[in-house]
Design brief:
Helix 11 runs antiparallel to helix 12 and helix 12 runs antiparallel to helix 13. The longest helix has 17 residues. By secondary structure, the protein is mainly alpha-helical. 62% of the residues lie in helices and 0% in strands.
């Protein structure tokens, strides 16, 4: 169990205090637009929140980025009752937000304890967290071999991000002997059924799109399209964006007939890019706007350019600057006045 007294500002609450906190949190979340029947059931001051309720509520507070200290306080109630998932949640909040005053080695030992306990549901997540700590050199000296080993363990437990990181290390020989073929094989296995990992599909598409000189891995546009299409089939707008860019510009750098080149297909590329843009992908919105302004890749169309740049400008200053260079839109019908 965690040493609860070491968590700054996190204290044990009485039953009455629990009810008050739960009611206050419920009121705040509902006011901010978070509505669930479970939260509604917890709002009654006559109800004592169960351990599972408190874990649920703490996670809701954390995921909505409302108040990490309050989330830790709620989880800490359940942690004190022996709920291992809650204990891990408190630990992660404490690490992320500086709520601990324990030595670094002790904190890493706590993470390791969760990672090494197969009976704990959060063990795969803890395994990934431990690998990241070792890889980045946070809290303890950097340990690439240890990081690779823990990433592999987390990947075996189904953590996609761990698989990608382990493969990235294997591609360049970080913490493990360099083995390009094995790294690609691991990514491909994850990208295909039954795992069907979108992250692995995107990673493979990225690797083959431009090649990796430091690996080395030659560019292969046809291979990149294969993996991007699998990710697009699962709804990835980034995959659609890359598919569109490949078809709009083609791949003239690779030898025709090699099986790795892709012929330019403007219509197919436009459809893919517009689909990504309509799903809110900012890079697709900006690139479409720019292309419609320039009139080189796509026919010049100021109104289409304006529409896409207005969408992109919400988060992209470059789109806002380009939008400002366009002529004002024509007046709407009925806006003109007639002088008699």
């Amino acid at each position: 169990m965690l040493a609860l007294g070491h968590i700054d500002g996190v204290t044990q609450l009485t039953v009455a205090e629990q009810r008050r906190v739960v009611a206050d949190v419920h009121t705040r979340l509902v006011r901010e637009g978070v509505h669930t029947s479970r939260l509604a059931a917890l709002s009654s001051s006559a109800v004592k929140a169960t351990t599972r309720d408190l874990v649920y509520l703490g996670n809701v507070v954390d995921l909505n980025r409302r108040d990490p200290l309050l989330a830790a306080q709620l989880l800490n109630i359940a942690a004190a009752e022996g709920h291992r998932g809650a204990q891990y949640g408190v630990l992660m909040l404490a690490l992320q937000h500086g709520l601990f005053d324990l030595p670094n080695d002790d904190m890493v030992a706590m993470v390791r304890g969760f990672a090494e306990d197969p009976a704990v549901p959060v063990a795969p997540t803890a395994t990934y967290a431990l690998a990241s700590i070792l890889y980045e050199g946070r809290l303890v000296p950097r340990d690439l071999e240890g990081a690779y080993a823990w990433y592999c363990k987390a990947a075996e437990a189904g953590v996609d991000a761990a698989l990608l990181n382990a493969a990235a290390m294997q591609l360049v020989g970080e913490g493990t002997p360099k083995d390009v073929a094995a790294a690609l094989q691991a990514l491909e296995k994850a990208a295909l059924e039954p795992r069907n990992s979108m992250d692995a599909q995107l990673r493979l598409g990225d690797l083959f799109l431009n090649g990796q000189p430091n690996v080395p891995l030659e560019a292969n546009a046809a291979a990149s399209l294969k993996w991007y299409q699998l990710a697009a089939d699962q709804g990835s707008p980034r995959a659609l964006f890359n598919i569109g860019m490949v078809y709009l510009f083609g791949d003239d750098s690779q030898k025709a007939g090699s099986g790795s080149s892709v012929k330019k297909d403007t219509e197919r590329g436009r459809i893919a890019l517009e689909t990504a843009a309509n799903r809110g992908f900012g890079r697709a919105q900006f690139n479409l706007g720019k292309m419609y302004v320039e009139g080189k890749v796509l026919p010049k169309d100021v109104e289409k350019a304006r529409a896409y740049l207005q969408l992109a400008a919400q988060s992209n200053p470059a789109a806002a600057e380009l939008l400002a260079t366009l002529p004002p839109p024509p007046p709407k019908r009925g806006d003109d006045c007639c002088i008699l």
